[in-house]
Amino acid sequence: MRRVWVDPASPQRDAIEEAGKWIRAGRVVAIPTDTLYGLAADPFSDAAVDALFAAKGRPAERAVPLIAGDREQVERVLGRLTPLGAALAERGWPGPLTLVVAAPRSLAAGVTGGTGTVGVRVPNHAVARAIARAAGGPVTATSANISGQPATDDPDRVEAALGGRIEMLVDVGRTAGGLPSTIVDVTGAEPRLIRAGAVPWDEMVTWL
Hints:
single chain, alpha/beta, 6-stranded mixed beta sheet, 8 helices, DHBP synthase
């Protein structure tokens, strides 16, 4: 595994482009987000998603969340947000708010877990957003750990757990940690809370 230090205040373009190249090639890259480290892979490639599950030692029946460079990328690749989704994205992105939207049929089957939907967010982390842009579309962002083990904000723990299983680790030092993203289903007429997290539900409903 290649470990590359990236300054989060001024990300090196060559490191970002290298991460994007590996993701486009179907490999798995550990990247920082605004909460914890995640594993980025091409969600439209069955082989890449299989490699992701193999790295984590995880069964394929659970859905995988995505992150994107910006809202425009989400809508260009996954489809236009509903008015409900757009209202929440306007206030909650970039940030730890995952919106569950209808999944395009071109997504790898393992990403949706058979639900027909996919969770996506725009993280409040410049490096994560830049990598998604370099990859050309939203990327997976499942936690960078062996399945059943704690998620981590520490790149040293990522390397210890996954160093022999992934292509690259983009190291920005410790991430912010804290609560995971709040997950909200916006496929219906009203928002439906799937997982409580960093964005309080009571605060979020005032955005509508």
